[in-house]
Amino acid sequence: MEIERTTSAVASAAGSSSSGAMAVDVAGGAERPRFEPLMPSEMSGGRPQFRKVPVPSHRFAPLKRCWMEIYTPVYEHMKVDIRMNLKARRVEVKTRQDTPDVSNLQKCADFVHAFMLGFDIADAVALLRLDDLYVDSFEIKDVKTLRGEHLSRAIGRLSGKGGKTKYAIENSTRTRIVIADTKIHILGSFVNIKVARDSLCSLILGSPAGKVYSKLRAVSARLAERY
What is the pTM of this model? Predict the structure, then answer.
């Protein structure tokens, strides 16, 4: 009688501890523990995680002018703390107790970095809302070594008269392009970035704009059929 009472007490204690401690999946007659995902505040031993984005000198005034447009989506929608470190001249973002997902921190850092590269706020904010967007950067010298007037003409071919060529590539590939001196930055999905980069490389190598347009039309039609 004493043994039966002890056995039932142990069984009830084990049942209550298993139900209270963690959820259990029963699959194929075997019990497997099911762990809930950790909150960002529970990772790294409860310490907050940081990202730091340096601010170039030529982007300091635009950052000051558009600060509230950057601050609002980061702090209110992504639940990530953000501040401007004037002494170190960089923007710092940090997770907080109610940050829902740890990936939000990297998204916010990418958003701020895209703004520093020269993208508009309206375009860069898409990095916060969509998962499959990236920023790809390369230099003209990575494609072809050009100097003097040859380099100036290549930059002129990339943008076109009044930015016509750049806008045509952006609209047909659904990307956004920033041409900053000899550096080129492209914001978009992986496939679209590749198409835009191929068109820009053809222009750098000397292809006329008309030839690039016709190739873009063919590639855009193929992409439209695929998706």
Answer: 0.76
